[in-house]
Design goal:
Distance between the termini: 51 Å
Number of helices: 10
């Protein structure tokens, strides 16, 4: 018996520590999750990709420098008489600027802008999914702690009953059979308590993982919940279709692919561009003919037209590939929209069922409690055996555990609805 009390003390101590609410857990988890950092890096990658493609629309500048050796005659003396050959030094800068490419580059840039927006929504999705996972872990800890309390209350009640029966056996009022049956039930309840204790520790370890803590760190969480908003089924469906991040991401993916198809289709169109250059030339003849030395510089510029003739079908294949990806995304969007509506409908129906079950389960608990009191009275009067008392006790514990499970199922169910219908 002392061992049981010691175990109870250790369990209660292990579940005490820093008090945190669900909101605290969500905020802490966001600071210790690597998926968030990865999603942020994906945003930086998308921004760099957008900036890279924007460079096509901006002027390009290059500096070119050359030092050239020429031989005096049509032989190979340039290799044997290097010092007596002609030399020329040229340095200059040239520039090109795309004027018009039938919006191929511009559509590519717009596709990159949408892809950057998608990367930001992917970060929001990581937040929403993390919040849902943390909420599930949080509610599981609460459910297990509550189950522990139910089991502890049951064992304490049976222990008091055992003390009373032991006294009655000594007085010859009760039989040893009653005493043995009561001890067996207490042993059985202790076994269930050990299982509930293990479940509580495991669920706490899972929550600590999200919080960036040591798995066995002490943790106290509060059972304070804000009232949940009331939505009709139609409102939930509308919110899911307009706010669900999977649907939003697919819509933007389709938009980006549409721009990408336009960009790829126009790559075979002519490109009109401006070009310009400035060069300086220093031409140095051999020493015996210094009068031929020439230094000059010049500026050139103009309008150019580039027309792609044939690239082996590469661009055509790329366009077909992107069109296929576009069609696949449209199919995926239609399917995901149906799935989201189905999921939110299922969660709504489950919530309605659970709210109705709460009333019934409260009534059942009250009736089970009355039945236990009645069995105790009859046992005291000798009108019923201890088996009736023990059966009533087991039924009461079962009813409380079921109500406890339904309550936290309701909380996790609403967390899932929130993940389906709300933005980050």
């Amino acid at each position: 018996m002392k061992n049981l009390y010691l175990l109870l003390f250790l369990v209660c101590c292990s579940l005490q520590g820093e008090a945190v609410t669900l909101t605290d857990c969500l905020q802490i988890a966001r600071r210790h999750n690597n998926k968030i950092e990865k999603a942020k890096e994906q945003i930086l990658y998308a921004q760099a990709q957008k900036r890279q493609n924007l460079s096509v629309l901006l002027p390009r500048f290059d500096i070119d420098g050359r030092y050239e050796m020429k031989n005096k005659s049509q032989d190979y003396s340039v290799f044997t008489e290097f010092g007596s050959s002609f030399s020329a030094k040229t340095i200059g800068m040239n520039s090109t600027f795309l004027i018009f490419d039938f919006f191929s580059a511009w559509n590519g840039y717009k596709a990159n802008r949408v892809e950057e927006s998608i990367s930001r929504k992917n970060l929001e999705k990581v937040f929403v999914e993390l919040d849902n996972e943390v909420a599930l872990a949080y509610f599981q800890v609460l459910e297990n702690i509550s189950s522990l309390q139910v089991m502890e209350d049951s064992i304490n009640s049976l222990q008091k009953q055992l003390d009373s029966v032991e006294k009655s056996v000594k007085e010859g009022i009760a039989s040893k059979k009653d005493l043995i049956m009561l001890k067996l039930l207490i042993a059985e309840q202790k076994k269930f308590f050990l299982k509930a204790n293990t479940d509580a520790l495991q669920s706490r370890m899972h929550l600590n993982h999200f919080l960036g803590k040591d798995p066995l760190s002490e943790l106290e969480i509060t059972n304070n919940f804000d009232s949940y908003p009331k939505y009709s089924l139609q409102q939930l469906r509308q919110k899911a279709l307009s706010n669900n991040l999977d649907i939003q991401i697919l819509k933007e993916k389709i938009e980006a692919l549409q721009y990408s198809v336009k960009s790829s289709s126009n790559k075979n169109a002519p490109n009109i561009y401006l070009f310009g250059a400035y060069y300086y030339l220093e031409d140095s003849p051999p020493p015996e003919t210094p009068k031929n030395k020439e230094n000059r510089n010049w500026i050139s510029g103009g309008l150019g037209l580039k027309f792609p003739l044939y690239d082996g079908g590469s661009n055509s294949a790329e366009t077909k590939k992107r069109k296929s990806m576009l069609n696949q995304s449209k199919i995926e969007l239609a399917e995901r929209s149906k799935t989201v509506v189905m999921e939110v409908t299922e969660k709504y129906l489950q919530s309605v069922e659970l709210e109705k079950k709460f009333i019934i389960e409260d009534e059942i608990i009250q009736m089970r409690n009355d039945a236990l009191n009645s069995a105790n009275e009859k046992y005291g009067l000798g009108l019923a055996g201890v088996d009736a008392v023990l059966s009533a006790q087991k039924e009461l514990v079962s009813a409380k555990l079921q109500k406890n499970k339904s309550l936290f199922h309701f909380h996790t169910n609403f967390a899932a609805i929130k993940a389906l219908i709300e933005k980050n």
